[in-house]
Amino acid sequence: MGIKAGREAGAWPLRTPTRRQAARMKMRRPRLTSSVALQLIFLSGLQGAMWTYSGPEGQDHWPEHYPYCGGTFQSPIDIKSELMRFDPTLRPIQVQNYNLAPGEQLTLGNNGHSIQISLPHTMHISSLPHRYTAAQLHFHWGSRGRAAGSEHVVNSRQSAAEMHVVHFNSDRYPNVSTAVDKSDGLAVLGVLIEVGEFNPTFEHFLKFINGIKYMGQRVQIPGFNVRALLPARLDEYYRYDGSLTTPPCYPSVLWTVFRDRVTVSHQQFLALATALYASSAQDSAPLPLNNNYRRLQLPDSRTVLVSFKEDELPWSDSGLLVSVLVGSAVGLALIVSLVCCLVRRKRSSTEQDKSNGVGFSVGDRDEYGSRV
């Protein structure tokens, strides 16, 4: 496998392919020329759209131009319980320098596929074997009529949106463009987002969204506490080896998807789902930017390691709790109805026997042949 799927508990998972797999990847991997680098829109730039989520350049056609999109170890996946395995060696995620000063200017842009915020290289993850330095963060979401646009789902439950904080292995590679096609090149933090309570941290960039309504537009925004975009608990998460969820779909990502979700208000969700366009301001027919998520990919025999014990697996996340409660209530109602029906039928039969004078007479024999 180009990226190792199952890992042995008790040791840090290696991501080194076998010789045969390395040779296959070398044969198939396109050279990262300047033109390919420009196509890594969601990672490093705000150039024009070379692909879309639907239509002639949509997901069904990605493999025609980006072969890895039709390959193995792709993301996102449905994180099902049967894929999960508790790994006691998984440490809490530790992020450094995520609280940015207002004087530090960030670039917020619309690249035609998502909104993206550039991040300073002082931000990094310190709890992995290598230092993974932040590059950018971006979002995937649904639409006004369908608040279900997360890429990863947990036991088939899709969230309203998802945030990805992209980091590259700065111990081995000088920048994200060099690291993007390496098996140990990227580490992405995935945060599932639900519609619920108002989230004040999101306002740090949503209040500037009218300045990036169209593809290619960008604005400068003050720095803020990026850590507040993440869940409060960083010690409970799902971990697996996967890929970029956009072309060229390199299988180069160490995924960390947090168990806990964050919330945004309905109005904040609508700001993402309705205020943006995937086309430029000059286009006569603006194309709305919504439902920008990739379809689920095959698990390909991968194991999803979890940092929390099996008996702590979230029933509410899997949807099993509701199903079990509903099923139990229906089953109990059926049993009660059946018992009541049998009691009424027995009572009716007994009353009919009494009215007909049915009973034992002297000389009759019981089932054992004795007289009564």
Report the major sheet.
13 strands, mixed
Q: What class do helices, strands and sheet pairing give? A: alpha+beta
Q: Could you spell the SSE succession in H and E letters?
A: HHHHEEEEEEEEEEHEHEEEEHEHH
CATH fourth-tier homologous superfamily of the largest domain: Alpha carbonic anhydrase
Q: Mean pLDDT, nearest integer?
A: 81
Sheet-strand content, in percent, reads 15-25%
Shape: globular
Q: What's the CATH topology label of the largest domain?
A: Carbonic Anhydrase II
CATH class of the largest domain: Alpha Beta
Number of domains: 2
* Helix percentage range: 10-25%
Roughly how many Å apart are the termini? 82 Å
Radius of gyration: 29 Å
CATH structural architecture of the largest domain:
Roll
What is the number of strand segments?
A: 16
Our count of helices gives 9
Spans of at least 5 consecutive residues whose pLDDT stays below 50 are: 1-49, 314-322, 353-372
